[in-house]
Specification:
The chain is of the alpha/beta class. It has two domains: 5-129 and 320-333, Rossmann fold (3-Layer(aba) Sandwich), CATH 3.40.50.720; 133-315, Dihydrodipicolinate Reductase, domain 2 (2-Layer Sandwich). 30% of the residues lie in helices and 24% in strands. The chain is built from nine helices and 13 strands. The strands form two sheets. It has a seven-stranded mixed beta sheet, sandwiched between helices. It has a six-stranded mixed beta sheet with strand order 9-8-10-13-12-11. Helix 1 crosses helix 9 (317-333) and helix 4 runs parallel beside helix 6. The chain starts with a strand and ends with a helix.
């Protein structure tokens, strides 16, 4: 493509922002000018891009009229502060923070509901779902014509990078302190994270549900266009730096044909199904990769209408950054 597009990345010094820049380069996205933006505290640092160090600027002083597409990867408050300014300047917005209402910025996963883009007004405001919802929608999407899904139950084992660089640094610090037999003082998490599993991610509401759980339910229904599907989800924090893993059980109205499910997944874009003799893990398979890995595909022990499987993927790369860049690739084509 000969045409180039000026791009802004807000939150460019965070784990997702840096990965967006990396993927723009890897996929040879037609970037004209690349504007890397962050808070005043991070402005002045630099991020590598195409053999050069690109200086990070302060977002508050940026003229969004200079960019055609802006990736917002700096948190919901930042998105709410600057997204409308970007749109008013004619700049398309891709929000990775869940900072905008879905009526304003619907969630897009190109492999699942990319056709929705053609129905939206310009300049586009679209969002990227949470990494767990993105991964699960990519697996369930190819099965919509095969299974009459009534209920989905999910245990989402989330990597500490779901909290950004701060979570990664905290797990590394705690691990070092414990291995060196030093007293442990939790900072980011409310208790020991290293060599431990935490039963909730975030602060629960009066009913006991944390925001990420409610977000996953809403996003999954939206992405699959199944507003009435029943979804049960528990998000837990695990001592893994990168790579979310999901244990999933799907209840259907008819007996599950495992061979047909396997064939549908094998034919789907972005899915790597692991045979029954093996199973995928975040560290051994998913981290640094673009695919969603699916394994342990099986029917219920005593219920032929139950489908169980395991999903793992790189939450920062595929779940956030790559999905955002793929959305941008749709935007520059103008059609889904």
């Amino acid at each position: 493509m000969s045409q180039s597009f000026d791009i802004a990345v807000i939150g460019a010094t965070g784990t997702v922002g840096e990965t967006i820049v990396q993927i723009l380069e890897e996929r040879d996205f037609p970037v004209g000018e690349l504007y890397l933006l962050a808070s005043a505290e991070s402005a002045g640092s630099s991020v590598a891009y195409r053999g050069k160090n690109v200086r990070v600027r302060e977002v508050d002083a940026f003229d969004f009229g200079k960019a055609k597409i802006a990736f917002f990867a700096a948190g919901a408050a930042v998105t709410r502060s600057y997204a409308m300014r970007a749109t008013a300047a004619g700049c398309a917005v891709i929000d990775l923070s869940a900072g905008l209402p879905v009526e304003q910025a619907p969630n897009l996963v190109p492999e699942v509901n990319g056709a929705l883009l053609a129905t939206l007004p310009r300049p586009w405001q679209v969002a990227c779902a949470s990494p767990a919802a993105t991964a699960l929608a990519m697996v369930l999407g190819p099965l919509r014509g095969l299974l009459d899904v009534q209920r989905v139950s999910i245990t989402a084992c989330l990597a500490v990078s779901s909290l950004g660089r701060e979570g990664v640094t905290e797990l590394a610090r705690q691990t070092a302190e414990l291995l060196n037999v030093r007293p442990l003082e939790p900072r980011v998490f409310d208790r020991q994270m290293a060599f431990n599993v935490l039963a909730q991610v975030g602060t629960p509401d009066a009913q006991g549900h944390v925001p990420l759980e409610k977000r996953l339910v809403s996003e999954l229904r939206e992405l699959l266009s199944l507003p009435l599907i029943k979804v049960a989800v528990t998000c837990i924090q695990v001592p893994v730096f990168f790579g979310d893993s999901l244990s999933v059980s799907v209840q259907t109205t008819t007996a599950v044909n495992i061979a047909a499910v396997a064939a549908a997944l094998d034919a789907a874009d972005g899915i790597d199904r692991v045979d029954a003799e093996d199973y995928p893990t975040p560290v051994g398979d998913a981290v640094g990769q673009d695919a969603i890995y699916v394994g342990r595909l099986r029917a219920g022990i005593d219920d032929a209408c139950e489908l169980n499987f395991w999903v793992t993927s790189d939450n920062v790369r595929k779940g956030a950054a790559l999905n955002a860049v793929q959305v941008a690739e749709l935007l520059i084509k103008g059609v889904a």
